[in-house]
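Schema walk-through. Below, the input block comes first and the output block second. Nothing else is stored per chain. Lengths vary across the set, and this one has 213 residues.
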Amino acid sequence: MTTPAIVGLSGSYTSPSRTRILVEEIVRRTALRYDKTSEIVDIGQFAPHLGAAVRLSDLNAAARRLVDRLLHAEALVVASPVYKGSYTGLFKHLIDLMDPTAFNGKPVLLAATGGGDRHALVIEHQLRPLFGFFEARTLATGIYASERDFADPTSISPALAERLERAIGQFAPYLESRTPNLLSTHSNVPEATSAVSRTRGRSFTRVPLANLG
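--- output ---
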């Protein structure tokens, strides 16, 4: 079976969840923009073997196939809910099982969800250093979404939609034109920033989610 080009990883134990919805929307928009195939993987799909695994070979065949999806994708969308100030434990345990070269050079859009803006720096303080260790090419714009971005279960806030489009556009050097000169330098990638919604005191029309009823 052909590996999907865009693979999303939701680090939430529960489904449906805001994290899952966020990953779905990012992956859907990315696949549509760059005409790529896609798939979403939930951390719960690795249960019940993940918690007891000390190496990838300890996972069952189904879980190892999911790992292969992550390793062979052209690009990743990775998100975790904020749990006690950081990413979830099983999410980190899965990443710990990976070889240090597993994500070398792979473009990764980092995202997180939380109750309020006080957790917004989880992307810069937790997720970006984690994937920096693997030498992944994390996109400059990280996506943090709070409860107010999902006030309506069938839509996302315009501020979040705008941030998604900005971040997804940064996949272009990797997915739109895979020429060596674009892939061999970071010079055309802007400095890392995490976009956080600042919508207090303004009125917006919400953006419908295409994949929700």
